[in-house]
Amino acid sequence: MKRTEHGVMLITTLIIAVIGLIMIAIILQLTRTGSFISGSVARYTSALEAARGGAQKVAEEIYVRYRNDFSTAGTELLACKAAYETKDWASKCSCSSNCTAHSTISDIINLSDWSYTLGDYKIYAKIINTKTAYSTSSSSTKDLRLYTIDVVALREHPQEKAWLTILYLIKLEE
User: Fold this and answer.
1) CA 159 to CA 45: how far, in whole Å?
2) CB atoms within 10 A of CB 168
3) Does the predicted model carry a pTM greater than 0.85?
4) Residues of the chain where predicted confidence (pLDDT) is lower than 50
5) Is 127 within 8 Å of 156 (Cβ atoms)?
6) Bridge partners of 134?
7) CA-CA distance, 174 to 13, in Å (whole number)?
8) 117 phi, psi to nearest 5 deg
9) Which conformational region is residue 22 in: left (phi greater than 0), alpha (psi within -120 to 50 degrees), or beta?
10) How far is it, in rounded angstroms, from Cα 51 to Cα 41?
11) Structure confidence at residue 139 (pLDDT)
């Protein structure tokens, strides 16, 4: 072989080796990213399940207290927010704009109406809107109350959180 052919073979071998190393690096990066994403999904799924459990607990509590009157609601503000429509909160509940603030998670945490611990998660819930409607169906009047509730589930790890907004309708005969 000529001397120039050895140089071409060396350069070709080096190029193939670099391409192989790049492919291995890409495969390792994809594996690492996949592990990170699956971990994130698992953390979010856990937080979401905790938030769903908290939402169910809040809905049950509202239903029980609605049937038994809100006088035992725990706090005067919670009883007032549950009993009156949102438009009446300022006059009847001595409530400022903090009663409906829910633009960030910290609004719900710092100004929550309920807080629970479910497993490793801390659940915060806040009534942000209450509407009342009356329907006449089959000659009986039914009281319909619609609550909009924000529920936040947090764990000590800052990435493990879920925020749900639920609508809860109560239909009771008068």
Assistant:
1) 12
2) 17
3) no
4) 73, 139
5) no
6) 143
7) 87
8) -115, 120
9) alpha
10) 15
11) 47
Give CA–CA dist 31/29, Å, rounded. 5
Q: How many residues does the chain have?
A: 174
pLDDT (tens digit per residue) in 63-79: 877 766 655 545 677 77
**Measured between alpha carbons, how far is 18 from 50 in angstroms, rounded to an integer?**
48
For position 135, what pLDDT does the model report? 60
Structure-token pair, residue 129: 């809107």
Instruction: Enter the tokens of residue 32.
Output: 């690492």
CA nearest to 107, candidates 121, 128, 90: 128
Beta partners for residue 99, in sequence order: none
Q: Please, what is the angle between helix 3-67 and helix 76-83, to 10°?
A: 90
Asked if residue 153 lies in contact with residue 159, where contact means CB atoms within 8 angstroms, the answer is no
CB 114 within 8 A of CB 159: no
Distance of CA 13 to the CA centre of its chain: 54
Question: How many Cα atoms occupy the beta-carbon half-sphere of 51 within 13 Å?
Answer: 22
Question: Would you state the torsion angle of the CA atoms of residues 128, 72, 59, 154, taken in this order, to the nearest 10 degrees?
Answer: 70
